[in-house]
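ICOS ligand
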Amino acid sequence: WFLSSAGLLLLLLSGLHADSQGEEVRAMVGSDVELSCIYTKEKSLDLNELYVYWQITNASGEPEPVAYHLPGNSSTGHQNNRYKDRAQMSLDSMKQGNFSLRLYNITPQDEQKYDCLVFRKMTERILNVTVTLHVAANYSMPVVSAPTAAPQDEELTFTCTSKDGYPRPNVYWINKTDNSLLDEALQNSTVSLNAQGLYDVVSVLRIRRTPDVNVGCCIENVLLHQNLTVSSQKGSEPIPGTTGSNPDIPGDAEEGRSRTVVAVIALLLTVIVAAAAGWWCRSRCPGRRGYYAGAQAARPEQGFTGEF
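Tokens:
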């Protein structure tokens, strides 16, 4: 036991790192992920001869263990409490050369480069792989608050908020009339880490008032190739001084056209109903020529005799 522990300590202090680059893996916060480390030169391995280490480099530049296996152990060990019960290697898989590490319940702090090192009898390094883990989380849909300035104010202030995303976002304000980006000098964005290690963002835009102000706030998650954009005029109260009963505003003109269409449809329905009533009366009411035969209708129809 002492020799095994000394061997582990020697590895950590020597600062061994994998020199063979492996794959890059993406995982969502709260999900599980497998970091691949596979030895293919032999089909069967004796675990009593193998030392297996998964480690990361901490902020001080020193190696820090995530999980390990030592000869004679019936399970894998952990020296980092952050990975206890969250990092696992399969002994049965390792016998077949699969030293992959399974991480559970991913957090933003798990975004690291992970080194997989496998030694035979502490003298022969048979495998060294680095796996880079990228962590992501979806941002909430942005919420844009409408300005509360009085109509005479020349400057409008919009505020955009979004939260619980990862990694750090890019924030853009867009002129929705032509989809052009607004000058970054007009905005002030604050991005902060919350208690869960995720990012919250608050962005404030100040622009000069125009008759048809319509801006959009865009939160970009580069890792997820995701852009969430919300317009200032979607689901928000009218901007003071820019809407009202003015018939020149597109919204009011559209409302007037709608009322006209409804009136025309109502008139057409009235004409159709009147015409249908008149037709029904002509076909059902008595005294109309060609529709009532009087007493003759009760006389039996005479057969054709050939006589005149």
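The chain has a mean pLDDT of 77.
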